Amino acid sequence: MHEGGHVAEQRGRAARRAELISATRRVARRSGIGGTNVRAVAAEASVSTGSVLYYFPSFDELMYATVEGVLEEMYEHRRMIAESEPDPATRLVALIVAGVPDEISDHLRMAYESIPLLRERPEYRPLHRSIVERQVALYRSTIEIGAATGAFRPTTDLTTIARNIVALEDAYDLYPLIGLEHGAETYRENILSYARIALDCDLTR
Known about the structure:
Helices cover about 75% and strands about 0% of the residues. With about 200 residues, the protein is mostly helical. The N and C termini lie far apart (about 60 Å).
């Protein structure tokens, strides 16, 4: 096969894999990760189960690629928010608002539904660890800028504050999934209240 043909084949394979990942996400959105299997994905993509496993050596690898894509999109959304807000206080508020949405998105639901898989599939741990660490880094860099400009006066270690904000976000995002409905606005205000104390600053929305 000449080089052009090989490149075309690789692109076609990548496109087919992307289609199967999209089909997996649609099935997971309807049925949850627990209800997602190779037959359901094959039916959603209008292919045979053999075709699914031709492009992915195992269904576990397809699920891994799907979860990886979801987590990456979540992080990229947060990163773009951070980059679009030059003022550290405004950026911090925008990140917290994005971190605790009014409605749990399909992305967020799938991310949390994949957590119970960690016991059976330890290969998922680096994915979840990475998304947490990168979110912490977004907050830490924002706090660092604010501290350097005098907008923030941190009362403790910057990384500790960043980790606490991410931990609060994760906890409050779980509340609706377990039936605790006190409202995203309340949760956001609670996190902002912590940030105001930890950073000795006025954060207004």
